[in-house]
Amino acid sequence: MTGRPKLISTVDYHTAGEPFRIVLGGVQPPRGSTILDKRDDAIARLDDARAMLTLEPRGHADMYGCFVTEPDDDGADLGLIFFHREGFSTACGHGSIAAATWAYTTGYVTPREGNKIVLDVPSGRVTCHIQDDGGHPSVRFVNIASYAHSLNVEVPTSRGTARADIAYGGAFYAVVESGRLGLPVTPSNLPRLIALSAEIKAEILARHDLTNAEDERINSLYGVIFYDRLSSAEGRIEERNVTVFADGQVDRSPCGSGTCARLADLAARDELDVTGELVNHSIIDTTFIGRIVGTTSVRGQPAIIPAVEGTAYLTGYNTLVVDPNDDLSRGFLLPVVEKP
User: Measured on CA atoms in the order 89, 93, 94, 99, is the torsion positive or negative?
Assistant: First the structure.
């Protein structure tokens, strides 16, 4: 094989420790009339690019990123097609924070009145409120309507029966109190939690039809959220969580869309309302603040409007090279999973 090397430019951020790679050039943007159509096009045409950008040797097993697109209409400022090591996701809260930070700090987007940047993402329209007091900006994103799908679902596992809530925050998550399974959320327990998430995901997918009411293309169980309750007081809940998604990928942040799903879960359990907040810590002790900013319904089902605040930091600009003679141009993955 001969030819000139292909150059792909990216800018990388981390949000609360979770990486996010924004593609700036070298890859044709996804095509389509709507953001979900563009996601469909990316799945069909750009999977090799996704793999190259996320997998070794140019990425790593837990890389995340996005392609930037035009918005659906003038009600938004830009569109994002999210990707990770396994495929293309419908929602990404930490990525929304990183992309809004990039668009704001570089001047790619001029914020709207109220210092807002509006994103079209596959799960819907997300409004990012830029909070800048002259230091490093933070972002509070207001997500799409989120809701509890099922509560107290019994899931058989190798560690006994787990009790899971299924909630939607732009994607479906199973929410499990990990301490009840003898595996509190700590780095040392992470291999066992990854393996256990695969068991839980397989059992739920075999027994539950998970399709979002707004579009059937948003379906399946995206991830498993393991949490420990740290404290509870009136109007304030503090937890530590780790979200395992895709095929065993681990979110280093407290997971933005997962925090939205958790807020919906807590609202359904009458543990949190619009007066309270969820202080959500990650497995590496970074933090998102989640709040319920409104209530609504989805096809007659009670739902909330969640908001999550976090901060993203620039980690680097890259020019990635794909040599046509490189047998590893698509990338590779060496998963390491320990059985519970």
Answer: positive
Structural domains in the chain, CATH included, are 6-143+314-322 (3.10.310.10), 147-309 (3.10.310.10)
Check: CB of residue 141 under 8 Å from CB of residue 256.
yes
Q: Are 330 and 55 in contact (CB under 8 A)?
A: yes
Write the CA distances from 262 to 10, 291, 314, integer angstroms.
Answer: 32, 10, 28
Cα separation values, 176 from 127, 163, 164, 258, 284, Å: 29, 6, 5, 12, 19
For residue 226, give the nearest of 273, 277, 176 by alpha carbon: 176
**242 - beta bridge partners?**
226
Q: In one letter, which amino acid is 164? A: A
pTM beyond 0.85: yes
DSSP state of 38: H
* Tens-place pLDDT, residues 182-232: 999 999 999 999 999 999 999 999 988 887 656 677 778 999 999 999 999
**CB 202: neighbour CB atoms within 10 A?**
13
Handedness of CA 73, 38, 223, 11 (dihedral sign): negative
Burial of 163 from C-beta contacts in 10 A (0-12 / 13-18 / 19+): middle
Task: For the beta carbon of residue 57, count every other beta carbon within 10 angstroms.
Answer: 11
Q: For 226-247, what is each residue's pLDDT tens digit? A: 999 999 998 999 999 999 998 8
Rg of the chain over CA atoms, in angstroms?
A: 19
Q: Which amino acid is at 297?
A: S
Active-site residues: which are they? 92
